[in-house]
Every structure is written in C-alpha cells, then in structure tokens.
Amino acid sequence: MCGIIGYVGKKKSALSFIVEGLKCLEYRGYDSAGIAYVDDENIKIVKSEGQISNLETKLNMNVESSIGIGHTRWATHGIPNEINSHPHRSGSITLVHNGIIENYMEIKDELGKEGKKFLSDTDSEVAACLIDSLFEKTKDMKEAILLFKKKVKGSYAIALMVDEDTSKIYVIKNLSPLIIGLGSDENFIASDVPAILKWTKQYVTLSDGEFAIVDDKNIDLYDIDGVEKEVLVKTFSGDASSIDKGEYEHFMLKEIHEEPEVIKTLISEYLMEDNLSSLPNLRNYKNVTIVACGSAYHAGLVGKHFIENNLDIPVSVELASEFKYKKLFINDEDVVIAISQSGETADTLAAVKIAKSLKAHTIGIVNVKESSIAREVDEVIYTLAGSEIAVATTKAYLSQIVLLLLISIQDMNLVEWKKELSSLPVKIEKLINEENLYKKIASEVKDRDDIFFIGRQIDYAICLEGSLKLKEISYIHSEAYAAGELKHGTISLISQDTPVFAVITDEIIAEKTISNIKEVKSRGARIFLVISEDIYIPEEVYDFVVVIPNALKSIVSIMSVIPLQMISYEVAKLRGCSIDKPRNLAKSVTVE
Ligand code: G6P
User: Fold this and answer.
1) Nearest protein Cα to ligand 1, atom 13
2) Which residues of the chain have a pLDDT value below 50?
3) Chain centre distance of CA 114
4) CA separation, residue 407 to residues 278, 311, 315, 552 (Å)
5) N or C: which end of the chain has fewer CB within 10 A?
C-alpha cells in the first residue's frame, strides 16, 4: 500500500534513485505514481496513472537533481487518477503521504474559508494545504509541523519539501511506516527497509508522533513535543538478495519454491538447537487470543487447532479489524498474539496497542524485522521466511503455521516431532514439483465463475486460505465452507460441473466430509480432492486427487496448503492475471 521514497545527496541522480526505489516498493500495491524533485532551485512534479513505466516515459532522466521524493499511491480518497496521485503541492509545500487523515473534511472546510483551493479529492492535499497555511503563519517549519500534528487525527507518514529551503526533506510519522536510510554524504527516505537495501543497511526508525529534518549530511530527529533527540542507527541483518525473481517467472512461484528452505530454517532455529524454550509458554496465561488479518488470520485459525489439541488450552482467533471495536474481556493474565507478515498492517498494530492498554502480554509473530508490530509488542518471534514480494502470501503464511505448531509442541515428546519435521522440507518439495497435476487441475477450473472449498475443523481453516489464494490472484469467485454447513444454504449454488475442492487431512472427521462430498457430487459437482495418503476414499467420489504423503496429522494439514497455492498460481497464469500484483490489492495494508 502507498510507498514513499526520497533522496538527498550529490552522489547519485535523485531521479534514478527514486524511480528505482519506487520499483522496489511496487510490491506493496499501487495504482499511480509520482515524483517531486529539485531542478535549478525549483521543485518540479511529474505524476502518472498506472505503472511506474508510465511515469518513467514522462521524466527527463538526464536532469541532475540532488533531492527529491517519490510515491506509489493506492487509492483511498478519490479515484486513481493523475490529479489524485502524489506528490501534492499547496503554496510552498510539496508532499507525499501514506495513511489517512480522518478529520480532513473538517480541515478542508476551515482552509476553504481562508480562501485555499483544492485540485484533488484527497486527504493528502488537505495535509499539504494545512502545513502550508501553518508555515505561512509561523514562518517556521518545526512550529508548523507541531501545530499540524496537534490538528490532524489519523495515520500519516509524510515526506515533504518546502520552496524556501530545497536542501532538506522533512519527514513526519504517525501510525504509518517510514524509515530513514543512512549513507555517507547522502540520506534516503523509504516506507520500508527493502527499498534502500541496495545502497545501505543502516537506518533510523521514527516512533509515532516524531519528525525529522534530513539533508545530505544530517538527520535531526525530534520527539513528539518537538524536542531534539538522539538518533539511534540500526543495521539490517537480513538478506537483500531475496528481492530478485531469479530464474522464476513470478515472485509467487519463487516464494512457493522457497518453502522447503523456510521450514528448514525454522526447524534448525527453534527445534534442532533445542531452542523451543525460547518460544513463549502459552500455559502461563489464562486466555490466549490471536489477532490478525487476511492470510495471517487463516494461519491463526490453523494455530488454534494446534494449540488447543496439543496444549489443551482454549484459543480465540479474532480479525484485527473487528477486535478493535468489540467488547473485550482481556486483562493482565492474558496473552494476545498478533500474526503479521509485514508487521505493518494497521488493524493488527491497532489491536496490539489495545491489548497493551488492557495490560495483556503481547506477542508478535512477524516476518519483517524491526517492523512496527515487531517494535510494539512485548515479545517478538520472527518467522524467518525472508523477504516476500508477491502480494499473495505463500511462504510467510507457511512459516506462521509452522511456528504456531512449534509453539504448541514444547512439552511433547520431541523425538518423533524432530524426525517428522526434518522430513517435511523434502515432502513439501515433492508436492511443489507435482506441477503437471496442478496444471491439469487448473485447466479444468480456469473458466468457471464460482469455485467452492469444503473441509471440517483444521481442513476448513486450510480451505479458507486456499479459497483466498485462488480468488485474490485469479479473480474467480470462490468461497470456503465448513463442509457440514453446506446444506444450510450454499448447496443451492452447486450445479452441473461446479468445481468443489475438498480437503481431508484428519481421519477422525474424514467420514463426515466424505458424506458432504457425496452430497455435492450427486448434484453435479466436480470434486478436486486434497487428501492424506492414509485416508481411504472410494474412487467414484472424486474426479481429481492430490495425495498428501503420510506424516503426523498436523504436518499433513500443513502440507495440504501447498497444492492449493500451486493450483491458484497455475489458474491465475492460465487466465493471464497479474500474479504478483493483483488488481486493487496491497501487500502491506497500512490504513485501517
Ligand atoms: C494484505 C495481504 C495479505 C495478508 C494481509 C495481512 O491483505 O495482501 O496477503 O495476508 O494483508 O498482512 P500481514 O502483513 O499483516 O500478514
């Protein structure tokens, strides 16, 4: 979701840096892009709807500029067009903004009364106009920023330039991600660390309410009250090379192929080194609540089964966007686990803050190091999946469920688990390599309008993820149902040849799901079965089958998502979809 990039220094062409930086941020999702740069003391703005390549064709890359800001926009206020795209300019202020100014209508009215005019429908232009108006009155940027922060409600990461001094970039942060990268005689601004890794591994984070003034030599950092504070430089320790597609046609495919490696890393980090005790002991808490969004929420649903079955303690799983508004019964005896690949999802971050205000212990299961959620929680566990670029998560989701399994088996006999989990990477690799089968299944379903997924218990949780994966990248309508619920309504949608994917990994409920399969089959459905090797099912009940190799029950459940990821990928490919960057979606949803 909206990406910010900025450069100040004489060592590089600001334009080239910003264009390249915008490309690194593309994966977050966007529908327009723009740049503001200084040319001969004047701030110039170039914007364009659609791809960054559209912007590039409009830019004169030969201009030697040493300072600029760029933005990829994911529309929230106002349609995706050139006028609404960033940077926005008002008076002497030019800015890019990520987040939502909640009281922008009220502020817009007030500024309108002062005679200010607006070109766009965005809250961001209102932010530019407000800062300009405050700067006009105070003649002091620091003062204007403090007054701005007092006046606005909502989330914002802002990078701005001011006509009066074009050697500096001002950055302001509240509830939206923003970092400053450190170079020598040059500095960088970005929404996230991967965007600057090619040039530096050193960076500074801003806490909510803080702002900074950045030029080529200095970073002056100010706390929430405008008092200058010490700049703490962090060093990124991850692997920057993963931000490259390599031999693969899409990041999604590359990331699926990385899954065996991700599991190896997790096992050697937490299981083989006998490090399981470094993971939280959930028995220490009265109630366990998991909060998350999207696939991370689905991972939480899988984790609930692991924790309840293995640790014998109840778990509630909540959508972070709902958690914030519901009556909560959480206190200092409880634990709230936030699951988030990006560590930046605004709803999940807000849920963590609420849990902390209720004095619960907060744990983050996060992939991106030093992300907002990682910094906010009391205890962070990294999923060690490496950078994930495709919007549709695969390896990060897998790492979340494996980690939840590891948390749940701490006081079990580990000898068997070690053996079983050690063979998991090879089994997963074999499953990934069943490409021809997935292609065949994909060609069977690619032209259908509706696809259903059914399963019970943990298989239902896996179905939810399979269905989400398919719809988000192939744009085919799909729904997952708890198999027993079908006959309470949805079965009316089953007609001749309707594809139904059924997942059965748990022997105990296999009989029941098989009955539900028969119910839809007898109404014309085509059945695509994902089933554990050791569960028997008569051949006439299904049309296609993917067999998951024998293993402990939880491990079979984990493996069953792989074919669903691969089939989604193949369907989207056959339909010619934009697999890594599906329409309207963002990797990192930084607005609530
Ligand atoms: C977006 C992504 C999903 C992801 C969800 C939660 O919708 O497109 O793939 O599952 O956000 O993201 P998080 O980073 O918190 O796991």
Assistant:
1) 340
2) none
3) 40
4) 10, 9, 13, 16
5) C
